Amino acid sequence: MEEICIKLDKVLLEYMDLISIYQENWQKISKDLECGYLQLAHSKYTMGPGRLSKDQFDGRMQAVTRSLISEVEEEILKEHNYQFTLINGYLENDDIIPDESESNQINNNSSTLRRRNIKESETEPNVTTKTEQPSKKQIVRDPIHWFGLLVPSTLRESQKHFKQSLVNMVGLLNIRNEILMKEVQFKKLKNQKEMIMQELIKSKESINEEKKTQENAL
Amino acid sequence: MAQLPSYKDRNFIAIIGDEDSVTGLLLAGIGHVNGPKKNFLVVDNKTPISKIENTFVEFTSRKDIAIVLINQHVADDIRQLVDDHDQAFPTVLEIPSKDHPYER
């Protein structure tokens, strides 16, 4: 009984701690987003009207920031919890996108073939280098370049804030999952405690009844 | 080869929000376009609620989305749908926007 009560207290304290961390995280997200919006507005002002709108989005954009879901086993209840992690870059099973640099290289190779006075031995290394290159090659394109190559520093600052807020958002989701897990733990432990309490009451009642029957017999 | 659980395929983060929120989070690199399928929706005053609802339903039923971010003021417009979503994946998170700061 005492053991369950101690566990209940521990879970409740952890639950309260998680809620305070959750609120702190929310404040961080709000602050980051606020700074991001402010810098974005400043960039809009600097770049002029219509230069920083949805019309400028790249229609072939590929996600460079993604989330991975992993399973974590809870120690006390042996239950599974899910955790999100942010990753940058492409995944192995992504579709191959023809890259500009690759197409440029092919053009370069074809231009070498057009040269007339060239020995075969000189052209061979080019061919081998082409075959040695991996077929899957993807360059991580920074979305900031949709709006031009020379963007104002405020836009970069804004991007940083939004990236940070995204990291905090994923952290917040993980904390939320943990809070939900703690709730389940708390309910289970409380049920266990109630069961034990009921058993204790029943055993007390049976002892009292036995005593009464003994008294009556005397 | 053993089949991976369905959540392993969920990698994208989707967003439904105003232009600034979407622009900012796309700058962070979450945007993904695959043919007609996009993982973002820009909501303005002219966007009909039916379109927001349809997009939310689409994002929550897609098998490649892990997290759906939605502005709080947009979520208020489709509150019933957001509240009815009780599945673990995709997880829905309401975020503040420029004109509507975070309400506790």
Automatic annotation (TrEMBL), chain A:
One of its GO terms (biological process) is vacuolar proton-transporting V-type ATPase complex assembly. This is Vacuolar ATPase assembly protein VMA22. Residues 99-137 are annotated as: Disordered. GO terms for molecular function: unfolded protein binding. It comes from Funneliformis caledonium. InterPro entries: Vma22/CCDC115 (IPR040357). It comes from the Eukaryota. GO terms for cellular component: Vma12-Vma22 assembly complex. It holds the Pfam family Vma22_CCDC115.
From TrEMBL, chain B:
The keyword Lipid biosynthesis does not apply. One of its GO terms (molecular function) is proton-transporting ATPase activity, rotational mechanism. Keywords: Hydrogen ion transport, Ion transport, Transport. Transmembrane segments: none annotated. Subunit of the V1 complex of vacuolar(H+)-ATPase (V-ATPase), a multisubunit enzyme composed of a peripheral complex (V1) that hydrolyzes ATP and a membrane integral complex (V0) that translocates protons. V-ATPase is responsible for acidifying and maintaining the pH of intracellular compartments. V-ATPase is a heteromultimeric enzyme composed of a peripheral catalytic V1 complex (components A to H) attached to an integral membrane V0 proton pore complex (components: a, c, c', c'', d, e, f and VOA1). This is V-type proton ATPase subunit F. It comes from Funneliformis caledonium.
